[in-house]
């Protein structure tokens, strides 16, 4: 009996595959943790979770888990960058963390690209 993998939570693509501890969508490139039954960064019931399913709160310190492209910046935000004193917001397009990143200034991040430190 074959195991069926869930569709991509971003684009609903049905061709997801496992890569290590993550599920990956080849259509849009989205990666998420299968351990969290819901898509990472879910806001069900007002709870915001990080990429591995930990509950986030205002004032937490988080670490960026993958390199992010930033418009107007040649380097972007590198994986492993620590972000201190986050604030949870009801942002636009899934950006639910309001923060200040050294060298970049104030910005919003998606909870699916950070993990609690």
TrEMBL record:
Domain Protein YjdM N-terminal: 4-33
SUPFAM superfamilies: Prokaryotic SH3-related domain, Zinc beta-ribbon
Stretches assigned to the Protein YjdM C-terminal domain: 48-116
InterPro entries xref list: YjdM, YjdM_C, YjdM_N
Family membership noted in the UniProt record: Belongs to the YjdM family.
Family matches, as NCBIfam families: phnA
PANTHER family documented for this protein: PROTEIN YJDM, PROTEIN YJDM-RELATED
Protein name: Zinc ribbon domain-containing protein YjdM
Classification lineage: Bacteria, Bacillati, Actinomycetota, Actinomycetes, Kitasatosporales
């Amino acid at each position: 009996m074959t195991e069926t993998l869930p569709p991509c939570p971003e684009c609903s693509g049905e061709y997801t595959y496992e890569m290590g501890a993550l599920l990956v969508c080849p259509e849009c490139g989205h990666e998420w943790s299968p351990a969290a039954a819901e898509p990472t960064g879910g806001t069900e019931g007002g709870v915001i979770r990080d990429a591995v399913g930990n509950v986030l709160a205002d004032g937490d310190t988080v670490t960026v888990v993958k390199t992010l492209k930033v418009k107007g910046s040649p380097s972007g935000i590198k994986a492993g960058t620590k972000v201190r004193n986050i604030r949870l917001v009801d942002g636009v397009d899934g950006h639910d963390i309001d923060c200040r990143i050294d060298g970049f200034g104030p910005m919003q991040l998606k909870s699916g690209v950070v993990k609690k430190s």
